[in-house]
Amino acid sequence: MALPGKAVARTSVRASDGKVVWAQNEELSTQGRVTKDSSTNGLKAYGYDRLGRLTKAEQATAATGCTTRTCTYDVHCNRTAKSTSGQAGDGSCATAGATTTASAYDSADRITDAGYRYDVFGRTVGTPSGRVLGYRVNDLVASQETATTRQTWTLDPVGRLNGSTTATKRTDGSWATTATKLNHYGGGSDSPRWTAEDTTGAWIRNVPGTDGDFAATATDKGAVKLQLANLFGSVVLVIDTAHGGRLSRWRERGDAPSFLRARTEVIRAGERVPNPMSAWSLSSVTPWMGTMGQAMPGVVHALGHGRKDLNW
User: Helix/strand/coil (H, E, C) string of 63-76?
Assistant: First the structure.
């Protein structure tokens, strides 16, 4: 079933030789949820419970075979367990022999797994990887720090991310700045038009496509990269003249491929800001934890939803 006005198929063809570089087709349930997704990346199938929560995802590719991921939830829709299993001996998708990771939550729906820490306002200040986060008085993320690297953000007068500084810790304990970036916006959108990459005059510009969404990047050196998005809006194919095309395989909850976390790639067609230090990205000013399938607990959310069943 296709909902009125919703695209369910997309094909990108190279003009020079007519080769299809990306193709995708979706099948929807009567509730409008994606049940099957067939693309250049392979085949995905999704299952949901009666509340519409994603409970099963099967991802099959020619290179890796079938991987099955299943999830369970508590009454507040927090993911309490995730199980991952490989394919059966005959190559079919299976759930036997799964590896399961369980999570627990407190009465405020904050994850209580080892390593997560919160301040008195309920904001996440520590993660299992040892990452430490700092906040502004309005609860927006201001900084993150590891044992060796620190990243800080500044805001413009309307609250958008307009600058970031990355520093590396020296052997004497002091910090040395390694990168400084400044976002520039057009109008009231929170999607940057272009970014000054350093103090030497280098820049990168986000180029919109005919539909107004992010389609390419261009730099001061003349390098152009096409950024092809899937039907959900996640960049799945980056094409440039230096390296050819590079496919990315997203998981169903916004877990970005590692090579798309670099600043020179933008991970969503909505031109949000990737986070090269982490396995989470900033959607507007909201940290999204792809591995957990949710926004970071206790942080101001600009996503406009609390969904935990996103098919990225």
Answer: CCEEEEEEEEECCC
Rounded CA-CA distance 55/63 in Å is 25
Name 139's bridge partners. Answer: none
pTM of full prediction above 0.90: no
* C-alpha radius of gyration, the chain, whole number: 20
Q: What is the pLDDT of residues 111-157, one digit of tens each?
A: 999 999 999 999 999 999 899 999 998 888 899 999 999 999 999 99
In whole angstroms, give the CA distance from residue 153 to residue 164. 4
CB 291 within 8 A of CB 242: no
Tokens of 227: 């950024």
Residues 274 and 268 sit within 8 Å (Cβ to Cβ): no
Check: CB of residue 208 under 8 Å from CB of residue 218: no
Q: What single DSSP character describes residue 78?
A: -
Sheet holding 79-85, edge to edge: 9-13, 20-28, 34-39, 42-48, 54-61, 65-73, 79-85, 99-102
Q: Round to whole Å and give the CA distance between 145 and 106.
A: 25
Instruction: Report yes or no: 304 and 245 within 8 Å, Cβ to Cβ.
Output: no
At 109, give phi and psi (nearest 5°).
Answer: 65, 25
149-155 vs 141-145, strand pairing mode: antiparallel
Question: Tokens representing 266?
Answer: 């933008």
In Å, how far from its chain's centre is CA 291?
Answer: 9
145-194: pLDDT as tens digits = 999 999 999 999 988 888 999 999 999 999 999 999 999 998 888 888 99
Record the tokens describing residue 284, joined without a space.
Answer: 């507007």
Of 278, 263, 272, whose CA–CA distance to 145 is shortest?
278
